[in-house]
Design brief:
Elements (H helix, E strand, L loop, with lengths): L3 H9 L5 H14 L4 H17 L4 H17 L5 H17 L4 H11 L8 H14 L4 H13 L3 H14 L4 H13 L3 H9 L7 H14 L3 H14 L7 H19 L1
């Protein structure tokens, strides 16, 4: 038997323009890779999807998500991008008020530095997405991210394992498992989890957390290798993450020399 939510979803179902759907699938592929270039390509694909079919609610929601990723990872002060994401969310919800991906995107857009990270409101949106479709593993993953940042690590890991059960191929969820362990100070299990996370999920985050785990385990030479390899591949070092790690390594070595 269908739940009331599933029945409502079936009654809202409509044909989707084939060209729009092709752009949508391509957009999801590129947006999931989370490099600056792939993110830009993904946004372009979603733009074309909604241009081809303006009533394609899921494409509007994914466009918003791709814009939000760009805000978080590459252009945090780009106000026009924040406005674009907000408009895309409202368009998606106007077409389908219960669309899980739209509530997921709204939760993510709420949970930003500009909004002072309203944990309760973000959790509410993620829970609403999961109420509409318990199999939206991304909503569980982002719900876990909020739990990580408020120190509720057991709840975070519970949600992440649920997400992995739904979608074992989601590398970002696998990364967040390692992140929760890292924040708990469980550096060895965190490193094991990081080693099994596909690096192309987000090279900056995966390599940064790998180096940080190695540093905390006292394996500075290995940490330096990870840092140097990343900077050789990505000398722009967005946000100065790896310059910061290099400073930590240098400070640690200085302390050791003074101790001698």
């Amino acid at each position: 038997k269908l739940t009331p939510e599933e029945q409502t979803s079936r009654t809202r179902a409509r044909p989707i323009d084939s060209k729009a759907y092709d752009y949508f699938l391509r957009g999801r592929y590129y947006a999931s890779r989370q490099t600056k270039e792939d993110n830009e390509t993904g946004i372009g694909m979603f733009d074309q999807a909604v241009a081809a079919d303006p009533e394609f609610a899921a494409a509007w929601a994914e466009l918003a998500q791709a814009c939000i990723w760009r805000l978080f990872l590459f252009t945090p002060n780009e106000k026009k991008l924040e406005e674009k994401a907000s408009v895309a969310i409202e368009k998606a919800l106007a077409i389908d008020p219960e669309l899980p991906e739209a509530h997921l995107a709204r939760g993510r857009l709420l949970w930003t530095p500009a909004n002072h990270f309203p944990h309760d409101r973000a959790i509410q949106e993620y829970r609403r997405a999961l109420a509409a479709n318990p199999n939206v593993d991304e909503a569980q993953s982002y719900l876990a991210l909020v739990y990580i940042h408020i120190g509720a690590f057991d709840q975070a890991l519970s949600e992440l394992h649920k997400a992995m059960a739904v979608n074992p191929s989601n590398g970002l969820t696998q990364f967040r498992i390692s992140e929760a362990l890292l924040f708990e100070g469980k550096y060895e299990p965190a490193l094991v989890a990081l080693r099994t996370t596909p690096r192309d999920v987000n090279p900056a985050l995966v390599d940064h957390e790998t180096a940080w785990a190695l540093l905390n385990l006292g394996r500075k030479a290995e940490a330096s290798e990870v840092i140097d390899k990343y900077l050789n591949e990505h000398p722009e070092d967005y946000g100065g993450l790896f310059a910061g790690l290099q400073a930590v390594v240098a400070a640690s070595e200085g302390q050791e020399r003074r101790a001698e």
